[in-house]
Specification:
The protein is built from 2 helices and 11 strands. The protein is of the alpha+beta class. It has a domain of 135 residues: Immunoglobulin-like (Sandwich), CATH 2.60.40.2230. Strand 9 and strand 10 form a beta hairpin. The N and C termini lie far apart (151 Å).
Amino acid sequence: MRFTHRAPARALLTLAAAGAALITAAPASAHVHVDADDAHPGDSAVLTFRVPGESEKGALTTEFSVTLPNVASARTELMPGWTARLDRDTAAGTVRSVTWTAAPTVGIAPDQFGLFKISVTLPKQDTVSFPATQTYSDGTVVHWDQAPLPGGGEPEYPAPELFLTGEPEPAHTPAPPTVAAAPAVDAQPVSRADNGARWLAGGALALAAVAVATALIGRRRA
């Protein structure tokens, strides 16, 4: 009876160990990704492409190219050991793509990744796709240009995709300068002056009356 109770437990442990081995043996999938902080349609943003080295032969990534959606302007960040080239459409006044090329002694190894940054003016749409091409030192070329699978699945070589956050923020309009209010003007300065004069005149009359009364009293006593 003890054996029959232990058999299912041993079987479960065996299956669990096999599952763990499969998970451990499965290679981690790394793709080219694009990110941007607070990107809005029609606004300027700094795009950061994260490019991993994935060569199984130990080859270095020596070139990385991105197709741009005919952006109005683009400017690459200085990257030591790499040169950047913009493909411009002079007739339309837009930039169609950017290509980074490594110096002879530079490249992205299989256990490394590189960050490629470019400032662009984004198109006025909710989602932007950036098909990319990764070239290795042994001549291998990988095209990251596949659209999402039906149902939302991810293809083997998905194109980097950026979801924009919404409408661009309105330009800040400075508030009009505050004008200090003029001091209130006394509407009745003459009336106040008249009142003061009346008080003075009344006081003088009262003093005169007291003086007259005093003089009369003095005469009677004399």
